[in-house]
Amino acid sequence: MDSKNFKDHGREMVDYIADYQDNLLDRSVFPKVQPGYLKKLLPEDAPHKPENWEDIMKDVEDKILPGVTHWQHPRFHAYFPSGNSYPSILGDMLSSGLGCIGFSWASSPACTELENIVVNWLGKALNLPEGFLFGENSKGGGVIQSSASECVLVSFLAAREKKITQLMKEDPDADRYTLLSKLTAYCSSQAHSCAEKAAKIAFVRLRQLEPDSEVCLRGSVVQKAMEEDKANGLIPFYVEATLGTTSCCSFDNIAEIGPLCQENDVWLHVDGAYAGSSFICPELRGPFEGIHYASSFNLNTNKFLLTNFDCSVMWVQDQFSLTQSMNVDPIYLQHSYSEAVDYRHWGINLSRRFRSLKLWFVLRSYGITGLQQYVREHCRLAKLFEEHVKQDTRFELTSKAALGLVTFRLNGSDELNENLLTSINDSGRLHMIKSKMNNQLIIRFCICAENASDDDVDYAWETIQEFSHIVLGTVPETKDAQDTIQEEETLEEEEEVNNFPDDVLTPLITLIRRASMEQMLLGRQNQHGLNTTVAPESIKEVPEDQEEDKEEIVDVFDDVISPLITLMRRASQDQLLMMQQKKRQSLRRRRGSRLSSGSVSVPVC
Ligand code: PLP
């Protein structure tokens, strides 16, 4: 591809992305494909010869898009938002275009320096204590990692190294690996599974402690655990507290946990993957109290700050503690600018993309006020959804709206809730996921789309209500809801009906086609003075001079018989629809009488 083609296709690609975003509502939020669908559509091997752009793009639309879950879709309410915005897409495009790798200051000075600047900008916007920022009076600073999991792992490794180094200083004869076997970390049982994974990789013991009824890990619980462990000869070295848990966006109490960590010389990492970004709004900073006790803190701008994956920002109060755990210094990476930050010592990989560009584009394009407005709007919409849940007594709110997340369940068994969620997701009308709280299955509803609106929330709630009627086997109270269910059912039935004529009519049509051809051919043969008692099988072997006749007959057949077949098809569809409607009416009558006799919600699944 030369630069002219690049410009042309680049423009087309930008158009394609913008049209995709504008027309998301035309697509089903969740793909209706089965595992292995793409293998059937794409060749086994890469093409030997170059293919043209149009063919590639056609496959994108025809083969790839049908298997995509549309995370930016207004009906996407699963997980957390996957931050995205036009400025961030363009910033990322520029990063790809420049294609530089900024592992050290010398490898591309602007990569390092812009990252230093934007992490400070963002840190200040969050009101992070100065100790976390790059500055003359600070030992701290920030770095962009790929994911929250990576931030948590890196903090585990840094804490492990720090504790072992410190213990070895106190007792130089101590065995490093014996010490390692005693190190113990703590987190809430509601912490993201990346904490468990990090402990696995770091090969250290992790205790998952029970949060209180508000799903908040309290200082007293951590204290008790640490005391028990110390009494058993173990060495507490790390606590991971979460601000904004994945299941229900609850907040551990870092104001209580922080002082304990300080007293015990334990690394406190605060994972604010989702909720961390909300602290740009002063009124949402309550749970941030105590952040000055933390050794490290991370948030994903690629969740709640309109910046596309990957862009997890991690701050530490002591750069040295982090870099000493990662520092290796081969000669080919050394340079003479020792005063500069070398991000290769701040993480696991050496090579790194110019990720600060997209965050810089976002911060500049929206400004802090624009981002605050975005966060506040998601909070408002979550409250709106919460109100809907509260007003329907068949549902239970399992946690209050927290930022853009609400969790709820239908009163009843886990199986019932699983059925509700599965049927909604399968319909492609909404996408949500489940989680567990207090040993019960809950459904998470998260506001995700950048420009989510009241209508989107109302639509989601109506859909949930409709499907709840289906799984409960109840009749909706309002006429509107009844109509929507009916529409839904009719659509399903029509689909069934559309398949039906093909199953039943196709063999019939083949018979008719054959019989009428035989009949017409016989007529022709009579006209030609041939024997009228020709066996139908012999029609296949029409003498050569009659081939033309046969073709003519086939044409006539198509003119005459085809409209007839269409009529038959339509008649049989009508017939079937009528039968289905009768069936439905009688089902409704039966359900109605069940309702009036007092049993309101009979689970049918
Ligand atoms: N921490 C929390 C609280 C999360 O909610 C998540 C993901 O949703 C993670 C960590 C893991 O994030 P990542 O995918 O960036 O590793």
Automatic annotation (TrEMBL):
Keywords: Decarboxylase, Lyase, Pyridoxal phosphate. The modification N6-(pyridoxal phosphate)lysine is found at residue 303. Residues 578-605 are annotated as: Disordered. SUPFAM superfamilies: PLP-dependent transferases. It comes from the Eukaryota. It holds the Pfam family Pyridoxal_deC. Its cofactor is pyridoxal 5'-phosphate. Residues 581-593 have a biased composition (Basic residues). GO terms for cellular component: cytoplasm. GO terms for molecular function: carboxy-lyase activity; pyridoxal phosphate binding. Residues 594-605 have a biased composition (Low complexity). GO terms for biological process: amino acid metabolic process; carboxylic acid metabolic process. Belongs to the group II decarboxylase family. This is Tyrosine decarboxylase. It comes from Meganyctiphanes norvegica.
